[in-house]
Write the structure tokens for this entry.
Amino acid sequence: MKSLNNGKYYLIFAIAILGYYAYTAVNGIAFWESSSVTRNTEYNSSSHTRGVHTFYHK
Amino acid sequence: MATTNLKAFPYSEDFNCPKCHTPITLYDPEGSEFCVCTSCTSFLRFIASETAVVQKQAPRPTEKPVLKLGSVGLFRGYQFKVIAFVEKKEQGNPYAWREYILYNYEKGYANFAEYDGHWNFVAGKDFFPELDELKDKGWNFINYQENEYTLFNKYTAVTTALVGEFDWDILFEKPKTSEFIAPPQILYKEHVPNYSRAQFYLGRYAEPEEIADAFKIDVNTFPERVGIGANQPSAAAKRWFAINKFFPVIIILLAAIGFAASYISPKVPLLETTHVMERDTTKADEFKPFITPSFELTKQSALDFKINADVDNNWAEATVVLVNEKDNQSWEVTESIEYYHGYEDGESWSEGSQQTDVLLSAIPAGKYHLNVYPAAGAPPAPVTVPATTSFSADSAVVANTGGSTASYAAGPALHISATANPIIWKNFFVSLLLLCIYPAFAWYRMRAYEKKRWMNSDYSPYEDDE
């Protein structure tokens, strides 16, 4: 019980870390993805509309 | 011997000093054999009932006692009366401390020892009968009640001043003392010359507030604490030992979560495709983009792409766009692959790699394909060389084609594989690192505190680290 009391802040922190690690593991979340990844870009910069250039669609 | 096994403090008695005739109060008149006159400081001995003779002139204390003689307090479950105040020092050293002799009507004597504002409640086998089982073996360590006590100090104690009453001849004794610590406790081994057996006393660190509260006095009258006491409890050590208990469990839990997640969401290969980069003849140095077959992601997942290009002393670059075929969301990444090798100054060398990895986080479920925009360096000029390796004058290897003509006009082949639910080791190691930071900090604080504590000892286990 004394140990619990002396280490309570670390325990809370550890539980938070373990919880977040479990959440990311189940949901496929990487703490950091590759730095060069950009989302929803307009490739070729020939389109002025948001989203992907029509070329990408099958 | 102090009067014990009573149900209350005995009545105090007054008698007159045989030298100066000043009244002296005895709080344990039956048990006390020696006392000091508060007026003339004669050290008196009772040789027969109520007959006191002057033994010696006792030095007067240099400091005013914090606890007054005769004051009563309930401390750690025992009623104590302060019956004497003693100043002591180490023989041959200037280190001095003070002791308050406490009398309990059931058990006998205990004392408070105060050094540099650090207080210890010290008692012998009357209070701690297990001490009687300890034997003098000249240890550097003593195991007592599941604690290991480490030798901290050795000295000969000398009484320099005293006031009050005693049941032994304290003024003339010079016990050889060894201190062993296991904070917050301390064991004293005292060997009085001419006595065959050493006596052991157990001390426990006491906070001034605790003593002030027990004896109903103002804590501000206590001397200020200096440095770290020999057996002063360390908050840093408490934290470290608490964390040290949990830490292995937490690490096992972290690994268990990782294994459980990889069991619940196993790795799923989604795509495996190879495409030979095709030069776009309409544009200089450009290759035709291509689209991979579609693949289905059944639940939100991380995606791991491995892009492999069979470049050789060349580079390739691919802009890969992951496209959701339902809502057009896209993830774009540009990766370069370079691989160069050769033979120089008698040694083979290589740099770069033919493969690169891309990790995408939290890709929603859906149907996807990849649009790939490849590029590559200019193909090396076709060369024909003999079957053996040839070297230029500058000792750089140009190529080793085994006697054939190499041609890279079609560009390197690009192999792309995609896997869902990869094990994200970076998540594991970052979590592990975060979980280690505080324990490492707590250990460092604990160690720094202990090093400081042991600076006052000739037996420091940290001496080698200095």
In short: Residues 234-265+424-466 of chain B form one domain. The CA atoms of residues 112 and 153 of chain B lie 18 Å apart. Helices of chain B lie at 208-215, 235-264, 425-454. Chain B has a mean pLDDT of 87.
